[in-house]
Design brief:
heterodimer; A: alpha/beta; N-terminal domain of TfIIb; Rossmann fold; seven-stranded mixed beta sheet; 37 strands; globular; B: alpha/beta; Ubiquitin-like (UB roll); four-stranded parallel beta sheet; four-stranded mixed beta sheet; 17 helices; 43% helix
Chain lengths: 924, 433
């Protein structure tokens, strides 16, 4: 602690922080631009100037930059003195010399940090008489809009994009007051985190293109605290709505999870809720195979008519549905008839990860803990494509070396430019063993491409180095043995080593090898971290629901169906054709008499249903998800359910009521489902703490979804009726459809504070600047380190013998395209491209195919795929993109023979239409 | 004749001195002495004692600067670097060019001794892009030194090794700022770095680095060879050694001369530069390049010493004067300078990037007859806003404000005449020479 004096008042602040942080942390206001809580200080904008005095006698003082000045005990500053204020107002006036007066047509208006700071710094009258500089704008892809004239040259964009996120195609160009931030030529921004520029840019240079194309101001957006459903990391989000449509998704700060940043799949992938594939009403299949829309009660009635008929009823849940919905489905049909909605292969992987995490002495880290790791091994995972936001955290972890070097010469962690200068490319060690190159290779000390089983062998060899008593390395050639020794030594040297693995190569041995290493590293001196990347938002939740082991596999259900034992099959929020080959799934569905499907979007499975029930998405419903860390988090509806739709758990509650499965009305409220789920499943006992229940009040009020400036509630429907409808009542959640009430930090539907209209206002809700929110980090951890792994088979099975010259199918995940829901967002679909098959050039030569040729994969009913050569792919493997049309029937781990397709015309993704570019003289 | 160590090999025809001629005239004796008979600590002590101050403009004591370089174990593993700042781009300055074109070995010898003192193993000469002749001379001289064993492994049979490279820059004024120079050398944008940490601790590639001006380095081996006392005795006043002084503008004999430190301005102007051209009177002068404050006739008898010129309200800078005569518009001259600095801003910090063009715009309005009475207040505010070191990220913008600030002090009536008369009075026929 240090005591500093600001305008004569004594304050206690944290030693070593910079003054700007300290002042913001005290709740005082000081304008700034270039500093960012996650990216530290560089001292470019000079906006946070204050006067520092040498001692009590010094009355003149000198101007210093708050962000570049470490606080020291006894230091004296003036924030409000004339000199400081005059300097700051001159800075903002200088910054505004070239800024267009286009706020009314700017997408940033109303949440613009520049607007806020202009007011705060006291600039009103313009004195400059010269002409404004102008720039050309660029086409940057379907996600980001570029309007360079608005730039105030704070350098945040390149610092985030390049320094923080590792991008290479955005740069500061030219110099002086013509400094330009863009790509060398028009084109799609390559970074998977480019969308954060929307929030990082303090003004409207980089704006959300999907929002710009269908625009609503922040103050007119209705929002709710939500959780991203596009991968298993559970990043906290704030989706914004107007006219019943999702307009945009913004980051919601959670220190432990996503901090200030999202990946682009998360930011832009939630748009599937606007899809025209959404179901509006329950449908009954008619004899002519069309569906007839019916009311909710009629649909329930019809289902119960043919419910059991004395035979069994089975249900398939979903790893992308809420825990509550899955729980109620399981309860409705009984655990013995409930499959969590995973293929048998998937379940085996996820279930063993679940068991490992619960038993292992290693810690399943949050993403902020990942950032503390000082040595990392990634085993078999292309993290950027399977758990994108985690890759951003891993990128920060390697910078711990810089922090360590900086400490030796007295640099603080926030002295960003100085630390980067000092460390240059010296990173904390990070090793990657994967089937192909990954987007983290640039920060890795060493990378190796291997087939999945070989990755597992390497992992076991590393574990053997660490704990020879328990594990033995097997079957490695010398270079790999050496690599294993190098990696083991680096991990052993670390205080907080981290092993990252997951379901990315769909190989159980890899998962087990990672666990072995983490276990061997954990001893009295240190707790190793073990992070598994999982495929879907609630993968771990499903595994925990079935932790008792009493559940039927899909194969078993197919068997039952084939023998006529299943009358009704209830499938909830699951596209089964992604869980198995078409033949397998068709066999299952053909065998059941009545197929009921509850889902938000139309799908191949849904089109097989006899009765289709429209489910609410995350956008309209409440639910609990367990992320890959083991953290239970709650999302809340942004808008009330539309007529005809309801949450899956509500469909099930009504069905159960009708069937007498439980006392009528037992599950009228969401909270009842959550508490029963917690009571029935010991590992889930804590989920009731994932978020407050519907009784929550803050100062007697519920949490508002609408900012206090929300406008047009009367006018919005005036073309339909001049009477303003009563606001919907929300009896289920702590939130209300209102503008009244405060924003408790853990339940922020939007981030706003007086004078702070942009997302920068979040520091007003943090316990310290960049620290956890005042009420702590939202969510509750369900899994903590256990007693240690008991016996676990550690041997890797010898490779299955295929035909000579056959190739091993390995899965390749793609951030845009592999995930089921996000790809229904037009912007994400545009980036996904077409299916392909990756080959090592040596394998391609053997097969006589070249880049762009077609390849026929034998034994498999699938269209030919376009060959893409990748010299970083493990030899003998054929990589296919998971989740792409054309690869549904390819099964990871199978050996296949391939041949060149005759008469192949390559599929080409339509080149993105340039809709906004100044090249060639066009105008936006 | 006074001792002029720096230019002893430079004749009026400015023929480059090759290695043989350089050695014949006593070259590489200082190096031999340093490297075979003295420890790095001895060398540092001697440079400190000599009171040599940086000749690039700031006048920081060279020995003190070097003493911040971590030595031995403290330096940690990796290279240490010495960089000669040969990016001579200060308006009105042409002294380093002379040294490099005519006597490249002098710089190289000075650099080897300096590098030995701080135990650097790699040295760079960061050369202004337009100095083609100097580049050719330096490359040839370095090659000759490798051949002769003055560079490379086991210099003069000792364990010491040094590699030296010439880096011809892409040409930005800001590269003269040592940390911008380092960034540029690393292949990055030539933005200055925040200090601390200083380059002595974390410089090129994050390693300990010394950046010295060419002229500074040219002194080093002379000091080693002939001693600190000798060097101190060269100066006429407080400061030690000799210095290359230059004069440009409407004088009879513009040029560059090596003179003792502390030589009075009047002597430089009237004796060496031959006084003002006929028909022109002196109105003021920038004593050390475009980024120093104007001084006037009243200051002609001041000795050119760092602190003396500093106390008079200016800076000695590079010691190369620019003369303002009575037929040249001071507003136009200042506008020209401020426009130059605005153009050369790296664009990193706001006061410089946006403040300088703002000042330039106001000056342009005044010069073109569109000035308003309140413009003087605006310029005064600008000078306060941009002019203090600490308000900006580096010294470029405060330097740019020096001629403006002092012009408003000494030539205020010129500004006012522009504004009141709504045109530049120097464009009237009677004011033309």
């Amino acid at each position: 602690m240090a005591t500093i004096y600001v305008d004569g008042q004594a304050y206690d602040v944290k030693d070593g922080d910079n003054l700007l942080q300290a002042i913001l942390g005290l709740g005082l206001d000081l304008p700034y631009f270039c500093w960012h809580p996650a990216m530290g200080s560089i001292g470019a904008c000079r906006q946070c100037a204050v006067v520092q005095y040498q001692n009590e006698e010094d009355t003149r003082g000198r101007i210093v930059m708050g962000c570049m000045t470490p606080v020291a005990d006894g230091a004296r500053f003036s924030l409000q003195g004339e000199a400081a204020r005059e300097f700051r107002s001159t800075i903002i006036e200088a910054l505004m010399l070239n800024h267009p007066h286009d706020c009314p047509v700017c997408a940033e208006g109303g949440e613009c940090h520049l607007q806020d700071m202009t007011v705060m710094a006291g600039h009103r009258d313009r004195h400059y008489r010269g002409r404004k500089n102008t720039h050309r704008n660029q086409y940057l892809g379907p996600l980001i809009n570029h309007e360079m004239n608005r730039c105030i040259t704070c350098y945040r964009c390149v610092r985030f994009y390049n320094d923080y996120a590792g991008g290479t195609d955005l740069s500061a160009q030219a110099s002086r007051d013509h400094t330009y931030f863009g790509r060398q030529t028009d084109g799609v921004l390559e970074s998977e985190f480019a969308g954060n520029l929307v929030e990082v840019c303090p003004t409207g240079v980089f704006t959300d293109k999907t929002l710009v194309n269908d625009y609503t101001r922040k103050w007119d957006l209705q929002s709710a605290p939500s959780v991203c459903v596009n991968c298993a990391l559970g990043c906290n989000t704030m989706p914004g709505e107007r006219y019943g449509k999702l307009k945009r998704i913004h980051n919601r700060f959670n220190k432990a999870v996503n901090g200030y940043f999202l990946c682009d799949r998360g930011r832009y992938g939630g748009n599937f809720v606007n899809s025209d594939k959404r179901l509006d009403y329950p449908g009954l299949r008619q004899a002519d195979q069309t569906y007839k829309a019916v009311g909710q009660s009629e649909a329930i009635e019809r289902i119960t008519e043919h419910w059991g008929d004395g035979r069994a009823v089975a249900a398939i849940g979903s790893p992308r549905a809420s825990l509550e919905s899955n729980y109620l489905l399981q309860k409705l049909v009984g655990a013995g008839n409930f499959n969590p909605g995973l293929s048998d292969r998937e379940f085996k992987l996820i279930d063993s990860i679940c068991q490992i995490l619960r038993c292992s002495k290693a810690l399943s880290p949050s993403m902020s803990q990942v950032e503390q790791a000082d040595a990392v091994l990634i085993l078999g995972e292309d993290v950027t494509n399977t758990a994108p936001r985690l890759a951003l955290s891993l990128r920060q972890s390697v910078r711990n070396k810089a922090t360590e070097l900086g400490e030796q010469i007295g640099l603080q962690y926030w002295q960003d430019a100085a630390l980067r200068t000092l460390a240059q490319d010296r990173n904390s060690p990070l090793f990657i063993a994967a089937v192909a190159d990954t987007r983290l290779d640039d920060i890795a000390e060493q990378t190796v491409s291997l087939a999945p089983d070989d990755i597992a062998r390497l992992g076991l060899a590393i574990a053997a180095q660490l704990d020879p008593a328990k594990t033995t390395g097997n079957g490695l050639d010398d270079p790999l043995r050496e690599l294993a020794a190098t990696i083991a030594a680096a991990l052993k040297n670390a205080r907080q080593p981290l092993i990252v693995s997951g379901t990315g190569c769909q190989n159980l041995a890899v998962i087990q090898a990672a666990a072995r290493i983490a276990e061997a590293l954990t001893n009295t001196e240190r707790t190793a971290m073990l992070s598994y990347c999982l495929p879907e938002a609630n993968s771990l939740g499903g595994a925990l629901l079935c932790a008792s082991g009493n559940y039927p596999s899909l194969a078993e259900l197919t068997e039952r169906a084939a023998t006529g034992q299943i009358e009704t099959l209830l499938v909830m929020e699951n596209e089964l054709y992604r869980r198995g080959t078409a033949a397998e799934i068709t066999a299952l569905l053909d065998g059941v008499t009545q197929l009921v499907v509850i889902d938000a979007l139309d799908s191949r499975t849904l089109s097989r249903s006899d009765i289709a029930l429209p489910a609410d998405s995350y956008f309209e419903s409440e639910g609990t998800l367990i992320n890959s860390e083991g953290r239970a988090q709650r999302y809340y509806p942004v808008i009330p359910a539309k007529a005809g739709q309801q949450a899956s758990w509500q469909w099930l509650a009504a069905l159960g009521d009708k069937l007498g499965a439980w006392e009528t009305g037992a599950y009228r409220h969401f909270d009842q489902v959550t508490s029963d789920c917690a009571a029935d499943h010991a590992p889930l006992a804590e989920i009731v703490k994932a978020g407050p229940d519907h009784h929550f009040r803050d100062h007697g009020l519920k949490v508002p979804r609408q900012p206090h400036r929300y406008s047009g509630r009367t006018a919005m429907r005036a073309n339909v009726s001049v009477h303003e409808p009563k606001q919907p009542i929300d009896g289920e959640t702590p939130l209300a459809f209102t503008m009244e009430g405060a924003q408790p930090s853990g339940l922020m539907a939007f981030s706003w504070s007086p004078g702070w209209n942009s997302n920068q206002s979040v520091h007003k809700f943090q316990s310290e600047v960049a620290g956890p929110l005042v009420n702590g980090c939202p969510g509750v951890r369900l899994i903590e380190p256990g007693e240690g792994l008991t016996d676990m088979s550690a041997a890797v099975e010898p490779a299955a013998a295929g035909e000579p010259g056959s190739l091993l199918l390995v899965p390749l995940y793609r951030i845009y395209g592999s995930e089921e829901l996000s790809v229904q967002s037009p912007a994400i679909a545009e980036l996904a491209g077409n299916a392909f098959i990756q080959l090592h050039p040596s394998d391609a030569t053997r097969l006589g195919v070249a880049d762009g040729d077609g390849l026929v994969v034998n034994h498999i009913e699938a269209p030919s795929l376009e060959v893409r050569l990748n010299s970083s792919l493990a030899v003998g493997c054929a990589g296919f993109p998971v989740g792409y049309a054309g690869t549904e029937n390819l099964v990871a781990g199978q050996r296949v023979t391939c041949r060149k397709a005759a008469n192949w015309t390559p599929l080409r993704a339509d080149s993105a239409a340039v809709i906004a570019t100044d090249q060639g003289g066009g105008h936006v | 004749m006074t001792d002029r160590p720096l230019t002893r090999n430079i004749g009026p025809d400015r023929t480059p001195t090759d290695l043989a001629a350089y050695e014949l005239n006593g070259g590489y004796r200082g190096l031999r002495k340093a490297i075979t008979a003295m420890s790095p600590a001895d060398c540092l002590e001697m440079v400190k004692e000599s009171n040599l101050r940086g000749r690039g403009g700031a006048g920081f004591p060279t020995g003190l600067k070097w003493s911040f370089v971590p030595m031995g174990e403290k330096a940690g593993p990796g290279h240490k670097y010495l960089i000669a700042n040969a990016d001579e781009m200060e308006p009105g300055t042409f002294k380093d060019r002379l040294l490099m074109e005519c006597d490249p070995h002098q710089l190289i010898e000075g650099m080897i001794v300096a590098a030995y003192t701080i135990q650097a193993d790699v040295a760079y000469i960061f050369l202004r892009a337009e100095y083609f002749d100097a580049e050719r001379q330096l490359r040839a001289a370095i090659a000759a030194c490798y051949e002769k064993g003055y560079l490379g492994d086991n210099i003069l049979g000792t364990d010491y090794r040094l590699d030296m490279y010439v880096h011809s820059s892409a040409g930005r004024y800001i590269c003269g700022e040592e940390t911008a120079l380092i960034n540029s050398l690393e292949g990055k944008r030539a933005n200055p770095r925040a200090k601390p940490p200083f380059p002595q601790v974390s410089g090129l590639w994050g390693r300990p680095t010394i950046v010295n001006n060419v002229e500074t380095l040219c002194n080093i081996h002379h000091i080693i060879e002939r001693g600190a006392d000798w060097f101190q005795s060269l100066g006429k006043g407080e400061d030690s050694g000799t210095k290359l002084f230059g004069v440009s503008g409407r004088v009879k004999n513009p040029g560059c001369w090596e003179l003792p430190m502390g030589t009075p301005v009047r002597e430089i102007l009237e004796v060496h530069a031959g006084g003002m051209e006929d028909g022109y009177k002196l109105r003021g002068f920038l004593p050390g390049g475009g980024s120093t404050d104007f001084l006037t006739e009243a200051h002609l008898d001041l000795p050119m010493d760092y602190d003396v010129i500093g106390k008079a309200g200016s800076r000695m800078g590079t010691g190369t004067m620019i003369i303002l005569d009575d037929h040249t518009c001071p507003v136009g001259m200042v506008k020209n300078l401020v426009e130059f600095f605005a153009r050369e801003s790296c664009g990193f910090c706001t006061p410089c990037r946006d403040g300088l063009p703002w000042s330039a715009q106001v000056l342009d309005d005044i010069e073109s007859g569109n000035g308003l009475p309140e413009d003087m207040a605006t310029l005064q505010k600008q000078a306060r806003f941009i002019g203090a070191i600490g308000n900006t990220h580096c010294a470029l913008a405060p330097g740019a404000m020096e001629p403006l600030n002092s012009a408003m002090k000494y030539f205020r009536e010129d500004f006012e005449r522009h504004i009141e008369g709504k045109h530049c009075p120097y464009r009237e026929p009677e004011n033309r020479p």
